Structures are given as structure tokens and as C-alpha cells.
Amino acid sequence: MNGLVEVTDPGLGNSIQDLGRVGYRHMGIAVSGCLDPLLARCANALAGNPAELARQCACIEARAAGPALTVRQGRVRAALAGNVSATLLRAGGGERDVPPWQSVSLDPGDELRVGFAAGGAAYVAVSGGFATPLQLSSRSTYRRAEIGEPIAFGMQIPCAALPHKGAYEFSADPWRHDEGPVRVMLGPQDDHFKPEAIADLLGGEYTATAQSDRMGMRLEGPALAHRTPALADIVSDGTTLGAIQVPGNGQPIILLADCQTAGGYPKIATVISADLPRLAQTRPGQAIRFRAVDAKEARQALRALETRWAWWAYGIVHGLPGAEVNKDWRAGWPLYQNGWCQDE
Amino acid sequence: METVDSLDAPRLLPLGDAAWTVEFGARIDPALHGRVLGLLAAVERVRREEAFAGIVDLVPTFRSLTVCYDPRRCDGERLGESLLSLARTAGAVRRDGRRWRLPVCFDDDFAPDLDDLAQTRGLTREAVIERLLGTTFRVYMIGFMPGFPYMGGLPEALEMPRLKSPRKSVPARSLAVAGAMCAVYPWESPGGWRLLGRTPVPLFSVRDEDSPSLLSSGDQVNWRAVGRDEFTELEAAGQAGRLPRDSLLAEGNER
Questions:
Q1: Any idea what the CATH number is for the domain that residue A245 is in?
Q2: In sequence order, which residues have a C-beta less than 8 Å from that of residue B4 and are 6 or more positions away?
Q3: Residue A103: which of A167, A182, A191, A22 has the closest Cα?
Q4: Which of B28, B145, B206 is facing A260, going by the closest CB pair?
Q5: CA angle B152-B153-B157, nearest 5°?
Q6: What single-letter DSSP state applies at residue B186?
Q7: Residue A182 phi/psi, 5° resolution?
Q8: Would A279 be classed as within a structural domain?
Q9: For residue A303, is it within any domain?
Q10: Among residues B16, B19, A235, A189, which one has the least CA distance to residue A197?
Q11: In degrees, to the nearest 5, what angle opens at C-alpha A256 toward C-alphas A138 and A231?
């Protein structure tokens, strides 16, 4: 790896996340992983991590005051994705702003101070990914089970170093999530609700509340009535990311990455995979509308999203915006192939 | 006892575009759970086949099996059909997992609800403990939080609903009951179950990569009472990672 960064300020609400921990839900262990895996992928691609690795490399997910990172060893390329920017303090003096959607190469002693993530989850990626130890085959932090180290002062994290000397940067247009209603599939317990409740869910407007974290997002809006009070409770069954559970008060909760693996509230509908990343960009007070789709439309939406991401990634250019660029972005990728993030 | 539910056809319920829940019924019932474990075993057998390749997680509960899959790697609708036909034919299995004999201490400060439960159910404190120790509990599922076992088999005489107002903080490793269920909180957490004791044994440890959760669906648990000294000793050993899991298995356990 031979790149090393040190956390010189942990900030607030930051955590190491990758695509999550699958295969352990029968033990009650949440999947975790990036709330917005698409933005994380963007950040990784801009840091020069090729498509396959861009899905696996761990990022720092920033949800409030971003961290400050100082390079201790090697030349490290970093990139931000999302509504966040940073300040670069060079070891030799001098500072400049680092906007998102472009990379910056840091030498030992250089410090990247990430600002406030204002629009929802934002991501910091480095060359090779943040190579913290794997726990249960993932680097994702899941504090509830004390899995993954919290980001703390002085924490040293290996990554990949760039072999070349010159500044070699990537930039791209900002990624834009789909807009319009969040698409859901009804069920598994839609039959526990009055027909009016289904109509309210799909016709009404809900507001994201401040009572939201990595486990779930509480919404406020038209109360969704169960067919009988007894149907507001079920014998606990399996849950998953995106499931919209409705407790007795009728106010829905959308389960997110750190959600419990089973629960006793009926789930009226489930957000489809293509629209899950968008939820990470929903701020308290923001309105959400829902639209029901079938399995076929959900599949098409996911395909369309992947195609759109591939086109976005194809648009990554060598060099910073405005510079004369080499359109063949892939040419830059093998540049530090000796420094891949290796799993022991 | 055969119940109407256990004879019902299984239902395939969509949990979005990345999971199916195959539901056998709506109740806590050993017969339903047997069918859940039957389907689980059947899916585990065919998991390597192409039609099932996209499966990433299998979550058995009291009455259903949730099958999580990667919608980028498989056709969800075809997977659902295959699961449903497996569920119709898999039949029930009684998976007798490992049998555990786990220590529990009933000291007052560990058991704030013991006297209340005894009084409400017209029993002495000793009689409650005696019934707990005389029961073989069956682990139905792990959920709510990592390693949290939902166990059935609680004698009816000890049943009591959850607290009206849940505690803000339940100490880690508290032995607790609610309704007909028994459980242990692996971590400190808010909770509304009635606390009757505490075990020194860690229920979850990431040191054990293959099986971080001590208990799994189908396991059986008997409790044995320990005094404060033994509790303290075992607790220290558990926290230092010096409490081998094998030492907690009941005698004569098939391994």
C-alpha cells in the first residue's frame, strides 16, 4: 500500500463505510455500508480507483462536520463527492480550496480539511481506498455492535500511494440523482392497512424529520391507518434497507443501512434499490412523495441507473476543469497498479 | 400439535426488489418454525445453483424466511418462483442445534423485575427461579440487535407483558422475559422486557469471525444459577476472551 493518512481532526458524524457487510443478517448484524453508494462510487472513481475497485474501496462518509486528514507517507490522491468542499494546506505553506468532483494529490505533510456536508451524505475517497482492517469481510463501521473503529484523533489509515511525481488529476460533472417521487414496491404487509392508507402513502406528501440517523428516517405526514389496531403489531419478521415500517401512530419510518434485521411493525412498502441512494440526500424538512412500481419497473430503473452511472464515469477527464484534457480517462488508471488495496 | 397455519400454503411476499419473504403463518409456533428451518435447509442445499446465485442473506424468523438477493446479479421474479416451489415441498425439519448450559446470576441488582413478576404471578421468588432453571428454551431467531436470541418455551406461569414504559438503558447481558419469550440483551440498550437476571457470558464477539453470535436459530438453552463470585470470575474471563464456547455446551452434546 505504502500510502498513509492520519486523522488530524475526526470532525463529527463521520465513519468509514464500504458497500456493506452481507451474509451476517441471520446473526442480527446490519448490512451497514454507504448510505449513498452511488456518490461513494463517484468519489472512488475520481480518486482513480477503477470501476471494480470503485465499488469495494472504503470511503469516509461525512454527514456533518467533515474530518481533517494529513498525509504521512507517499503521494495520495483524494477526491470528494457530494455537497461538500475542503481546504488544502500544503506542508510547505499555502492553501487553496478543493471543490468536490475533482481530485487533488497530496504529499506527506499536506492536510485536507473537509468542510461541512450540507446536502446529505458526502464522501471522501483516497487512492486505493481507506484500508482499515476487515471485520466480518467488510470495513463498514457498525457502532451498535462495536464493529469498525470510530474515526478518532491520530488514527492512521493505510491507502495506496501514487508512483508518479507530477500532478495527475481527474474531474467530472457533478452526479445528479433522479428526481420525482421515490419509487416503492408495495408489501410485504400492505394488507395490514386500510385502502385509504395506501392512497395516502402514494398521494400524500411526507416530510423528513430531524429524527433520522443511519438506522432509519422518520417521516411526518398523513397518518397511515392499520385495518385494525391489532394489525399494527406483527410477530417479528425480516426487514431490509428501504422498508417503510409503520408503528401504531401511523407515521412511517424508512429503514436505512444500519437498520435492524427483523422488526415487529408492519411494512407497508419498500423503496426500490435504484432510489435508496437518494434517501441519503434527504435533509430534515424536505418533502418526499412516493410512487408505486412493479418488479419490472424496479428492474428497469436499476438498469437505467447503472447505465447512467457508466456514462457519468465515462465523462471523467484527466486534468482539472478548464485544463486541456485527455479524454481517454482509462489511460490514467494503471498508473499506480503496484499500490492496490490488498485484502490480507 | 398440528395447527391450521402450519398446513396453510406458504405465501411469497415482496420486500422491495432485493428481498423476498416466504411466510408460513403469523404466529409463534414450533410447527411453523420447523417449516422455516425446512426451507432454510432446502435453500442452503441449492444455493450454489445458478438460479439462486444472487442470494446474499438468509434470515429465518419465527414464521418466515427472508431471502435477500442482489438485483444486479439475478432475476428476482424467477428467484421468487423457485423459492415458493421449494417452500411447498421442503417440509418441516426440527433442527436441534447445539445445546447450551449457560450461567445466570439472580442477585437483586441484576434482577430488578424478579420480585414484581413473582408477586404478580402469585409465586415466590424461588419458585420463579426454579421454573426458569427447569425450562429448556429454544432459540427461534437472532434479531433486533447482533446476537440477540428470541427464545421460546417460557412456562405460562411466568408470562407477563412488556413494561408500559421501556427502560432507557438495560444493562448488557441481562436475562429478560416478555410475553412467552425469553431473551438476553447482548449490549446495553433501551428495552421494555422484564429483567430477571444476568449472564456473564458474551453473546456476541467479533473475535469469532465464523460465528460472532454465540447462539443460532434452532439451538437449545438451559440456565444454571451461579453466585456472585463465579459470575464475576466468568465475566472477567468472557471479556478477556478466555471463556471457550465449548465449555458452555451441555454435556453429551453432539459436536
A1: 2.40.100.10
A2: none
A3: A167
A4: B145
A5: 125
A6: S
A7: -75, 130
A8: yes
A9: no
A10: A189
A11: 130
Q: In Å, how far is B79's CA from the nearest CA of chain A?
A: 12
Same domain, A135 and A196: no
Sheet containing B137-142, strands listed edge to edge, beginning at the edge strand earlier in sequence: B99-104, B220-225, B137-142, B149-152, B181-184, B174-178, B194-198
Q: Does A308 fall in a domain?
A: no
d(CA B3, CA B27): 10
User: One-letter amino acid identity for A265?
Assistant: Y
What local confidence, expressed as pLDDT, does residue A327 receive? 46
Pick from B83, B65, B87: which is nearest to B10 by CA? B87
Whole-number pLDDT of residue A167: 63
Considering the domain delimited by B99-248, tell me its CATH architecture: Beta Barrel (2.40)
Residues of chain B with CATH 2.40.100.10: 99-248
Does the structure show a pLDDT above 50 at A336? no
How close does chain A come to B23, measured CA to CA in Å? 9
Top residue of A183, A240, A307 to mutate, by most chain B CBs within 10 Å, is A240
Residues A30 and A58 reside in one and the same domain: yes
Tell me how far apart the alpha carbons of residues A75 and A4 are, in angstroms, rounded to a whole number: 9
Residues of chain A contacting B18 with CB distance shorter than 8 Å: 240-242, 273
Q: Which domain holds residue A241?
A: 182-298
Whether A230 contacts A193, CB under 8 Å: no
B4-90 is classed in which CATH architecture? 2-Layer Sandwich (3.30)
Residues of chain A contacting residue B148, judged by C-beta atoms under 8 Å apart: 28
d(CA A290, CA A282) in angstroms, rounded, equals 14
A193 phi, psi to nearest 5 deg: -115, 150
pLDDT of the residue at A334: 37
* Overall domain count for chain A: 2
Strand A182-186 to A267-271 pairing: antiparallel
Rounded to an integer, the average pLDDT of A273-280 is 98
Q: Which residues of A touch B215 (CB under 8 A)?
A: none
Give the per-residue pLDDT at A96: 95
A67-71, A81-85, B25-29: range with lowest mean pLDDT:
B25-29
pLDDT digits (tens, 9 = 90+) for B117-138: 999 999 999 999 999 999 999 9
Q: Within this chain, do residues A148 and A11 fall inside the same structural domain, yes or no? A: yes
Does the residue A158 lie in any domain? yes
B211 contacts on A by Cβ (under 8 Å): 27
Q: Hey, is the C-beta of B33 within 8 angstroms of any chain A C-beta?
A: no
DSSP β-bridge partners for residue A4: A73, A158
Domain with CATH 3.30.1360.40 in chain B: 4-90
Nearest partner of A286 among A118, A169, A106, judged by Cα: A118
Within 10 angstroms of residue B239's Cβ, the number of other Cβ atoms is 12
